[in-house]
Amino acid sequence: MAYADQGGDALDYFPCRYGTSRLLFRGPKRKLEGDYVAVLGGSETYGKFVPRPYPTLTEERVGRKVVNFGVMNAGVDVFAHDTTVLDACSRAKATVIQIGGAQNMSNRFYAVHPRRNDRFLRASKMLKAIYREMDFTEFHFTRHLLAALRADSPERFELVAHEIKTAWTARMKLLASGLDAPVVLLWLADHAPEAGGRDTVPAGEPLFVDRAMLSELAPFVADIVEVVVSPDEVRDGQGALVFGELEAPAAREMLGARAHEKAAAALAPVLDALM
Q1: Helix/strand/coil (H, E, C) string of the chain?
Q2: pLDDT digits (tens, 9 = 90+) for 227-262
Q3: Taking all residues of the chain, what is their mean pLDDT, rounded to a whole number?
């Protein structure tokens, strides 16, 4: 591992904004003109601790500008409500959307922060009615909330999990179908999409998303690219991450540089065919 002094960021992410968007993206800032590919996603797409994230590596492979619209801890809601990002994606030659977990979005049971989608804001009356014994003021993050709900009542939690999956699938369909450019979904994880999804909180991303949900999205996108990173590849790739000493625990949660190399190699031929 590589460390920076005093826990500060060892990488300069050149944070930037586009248009009227309040979101902070990884730079350097690119001009949104000509032929380009837009990439949406969460922390892996942003490339936290990664010197050269997969949008950068993909650009080198396809020979076209690739704009990184990754946002730390982003869920679907971040992009679905940002007109600047949606317009940039519609004007792109193609848009790649990294598949994120279904837990970080508002639904009928709880609301999340509009930009920091991993932040739990409040429970709905419906959730309070189902979990009358729960004090929701104790929770600040969606994973903490869901882990507590599941531990308290696995049976009632099935209602929550079903709602999360249904809401995520519907919103992803809306996002993909609303863009003028062809959309490519990217599954980037340490496991393949499973029949039932990973709803044992905590678990590796993308949480709750399963094979059936991806099948529902298939008619709305040009392609779905699956990249699965083995434990050895994660371990090797984490050796290339750059982070501050105090950031070591967070860095261990990332897939590592090898995952980004595999993602770029898998995306390049698909994007070449679309452009």
Answers
A1: CEEEHHHCCCCCCCCECCCCCCCCECCCCCCCCCCEEEEEECHHHHCCCCCCCHHHHHHHHHCCEEEEEECCCCCHHHHHCCHHHHHHHHHCCEEEEECCCCCCCCCCCEEECCCCCCEEEEECHHHHHHCCCCCHHHCCEHHHHHHHHHHHCHHHHHHHHHHHHHHHHHHHHHHHHCCCCCEEEEEEECCCCCCCCCCCCCCCCCCCCCHHHHHHHHHHCCEEEEEECCHHHHHHHHCCCEEEHHHHHHHCCCCCHHHHHHHHHHHHHHHHHHC
A2: 999 999 999 999 999 998 899 999 999 999 999 999
A3: 92
CATH class entry, domain 2-274 = alpha beta
The pLDDT score that the predictor gives to residue 195 is 56
**pTM (2 d.p.):** 0.91
Q: What are the C-alpha distances in Å from 135 to residues 96, 120, 129, 239, 266? A: 39, 13, 12, 41, 45
Domain coordinates in residue numbering, the chain = 2-274
Residues 177-211: pLDDT tens digits? 999 999 999 999 999 998 555 554 445 689 999 99
